[in-house]
Amino acid sequence: MTRSLQACWVSFSQFAATFGGFQMFTLRLLPYLPRAILRPRLITEQIYSLGALSLVLIMFGGFFVGTVLALQSYSTLLEFGQVDALGAFASEALVRELGPVVTALLFAGRAGSAVASEVGLMRATNQLAAMELMAVDPLQRVIVPRFIAGVVSVPLLAAIFCTMGVLGAYLVGVHQLGVDAGAFWSHIQDRVDLFDDVGSGLFKSFVFGVSASLMGVYEGYYAAPNAGGVSRAATRTVVITSVWILLFDFVLTGMTMPGV
Amino acid sequence: MLSHKKPPNIIEIQDVRYSRGKRAIFDGLNMNFPRGAVSAVMGPSGTGKTTLLNLITGQLVPDDGAVLFDGKVVCPCSRHGLYNTRRQIGVLFQDGALLTDLNVFENVAFPLREHTRLPEQLIRQIVLMRLNSVGLRAAWQRMPSELSGGMARRVGLARALVMDPKLIIYDEPFTGLDPIAVGVILRLIRQTNDVLGITSIVVTHDVAEAEMLADLIFLISEGKVVASGSPLDMQQKASSMVRQFMQGLADGPVPFHYPGTSYADQLQTMSRT
Lengths: 260, 273
Description:
Chain A is mostly helical. Chain A has helices at 2-29, 32-36, 40-51, 55-79, 86-124, 127-133, 138-176, 181-191, 194-221, 227-256. In chain A, helix 5 packs across helix 8 (181-191). Chain B folds into two domains: 9-88 and 165-272, Rossmann fold; 98-164, no CATH class. Chain B is globular, with a radius of gyration of 21 Å.
């Protein structure tokens, strides 16, 4: 009994220390954010590497999520005689929910883990130490541009994911299942609200972008300087970010859903 | 009239104590590195040579005592002050520690781009001059992954020199290099020190290279300097510790066997379990 209590206490202490360390790291980054904007080239390079290079995956994912959504919802809508609402149904699901969540999960797997490994490897190969000794702050030169790039990229990628999803739903719904094209688009225009739906989706993407980027740079920066440490940092980034995204999604959906 | 005479020692380590956990790494360490000389810091593995470098560059803070650079205390308490000190110190890491996403030219230009607003043409001239001095001007477009160990260290040296530091610290510069590369690095360290009039500290356990290169050798063990002097003085020291290290003897004050219970006791204990 005492041993179990001790183990619980140790686990709790470790969790509290990690959480505290994470908060301190976040606070340390804040003063660098305004200064980072003075060097936009560093940020655009990272937007290319984290965002633009994730485009194919995001477009592919968005398109097939849209097609599956159309196929799955068609039979149910047909039962209620509402197949014309297929476009609105798919669009709302994509814009409010699937777009931000799936994009963030894919981003965490593709870019978040890449950031954690890259920064972890820089730690392991003394590149961060070399910067420190050249009087260059690695937080400003390496960490902040990657963080900002992630925060900017995720909402943009989510928008592209949703666009591809709607296109996929259109191709399946209109060209394969015979839904009227005019009805498909007009229902979208009627149902999807710029502020309530697109706005809440973008807000979610922003929060998920902050989570994924922050976790990637944090895990990489504090990775143990060896092969195991780098691989653990990449894995932890994906796992913890995924849990955060799903948790935040529940909270944010509760906050932004009209009538809840 | 006030005189602004520079202190004779560029680095002074005054009664430094530093512990990691319960283990004391340095227990009252005193060292003076004279300006303009090449000093070698030697000692068995695990004696704290790299810790000493970290104390000099302000990456670690001594528990007690002080580290002075050019007469001023190296103190990580102010980031601005610490970075000002570091701009005057070049460090060459064991593996060069080049930034892997930049090519050779950009690696050497990195400190200039970060700390100065020099025009691009001047940066190009300075970088090519530094690369020429280490014999790698023609390799300016290569990526770090395309360089041999010796070449990476030479690029690291060019980068360490690009801000015209007062002091250069070399961390194990000869480890893992072939004899030609060792010869090149030896020549570069000596030449750089003498031609540019800077001070060099070389951390190494390569006795032959240290004897060829250094004006002054420090041998540290168990947290203290056990011997110091010119290479000739060190060869003539009678201390068993110095003799073991300088002659590379397998057993002596640093024992061959890791300390523990006797062999017979361990066999008995293990046969009982």
